[in-house]
Amino acid sequence: MEKRLSRKSKKTISIVISAVVCISIIGSSFFYDYICRTRKNVDFQEIINHEVKSSTLYIISETATISGNDESFSYGAGFGGVVFSEADGVYYALTALHAVDNNPTHLYVLSYDDLTYNERIAQQEQHIGLRDYYKTLPIAEVVYSDEEYDLAILKFSCSDSFGILNIASNTPAFKDQVAIISSPLNEGRNEITYGSIISKKPVKFGDTNGENQRLVIKTSAYDNFGSSGSVLLNKQSEIAGIVLGGGRDIFDNFRYSLVMPANEINDFITTWYSSKKQ
Fold first, then answer.
1. Backbone φ, ψ for residue 246 (5° rounding)
2. Environment class of residue 113 by beta-carbon count within 10 Å: exposed (0-12), middle (13-18) or buried (19+)?
3. 230-261 residue pLDDT tens
4. Considering the entire predicted model, what is its pTM?
């Protein structure tokens, strides 16, 4: 005679199945995040030489607040940038507009090898004030920006030598291998993450109405808060995109990076050049 499961047994099985499904979903979320953060690409690693690294910037914003006779200064967490042009010791760099669009008093430029204030204090016994330290660094100014692209061009002067990267003539295609050099918040400086383009075609980025937007691409190369403005590299050591943000799941684990691609950057640069001639 065929045995039937009791109502209690069915409930137990249902609970077990639900638990297994939940554990699988949570596990896959954390596993994907881990894979994207730690993925290596030996061929790509050989391409990222000193010239490439020295083109990347870490930018700290300083904001002055005046209250009566007192003036205080606050400092941002930092964001990325990449040098694309130079003339007579004046460098021009690309970054994300939203990263600088809070009216900072100063934007201080750190090279790939420069230390942040906390890093310097940790490595050297001699004490120096926070503001005194950042005042020793080059100061950048925004010379051109466009909300439609969420891009800004910074200009700064420096006697030190920075690398200069070309902007790719074409946007990377689906499955193309790419890399991001950035300094994700609380995850270390100059982190290099590898991945590929995962969007088959560009997607909209920004407000829900899709107004005044340029199309962006998605990549599996890891980013996090602090990566905005950082460079996306192709295998020709060119600027293939600028990181604008990313997507995370309900567990706050990484899903994808959103990048303003090379073709849009070239349009942005062309418009800037045209505005200078007017």
1. -170, 175
2. exposed
3. 999 999 999 999 999 999 988 899 999 999 99
4. 0.89
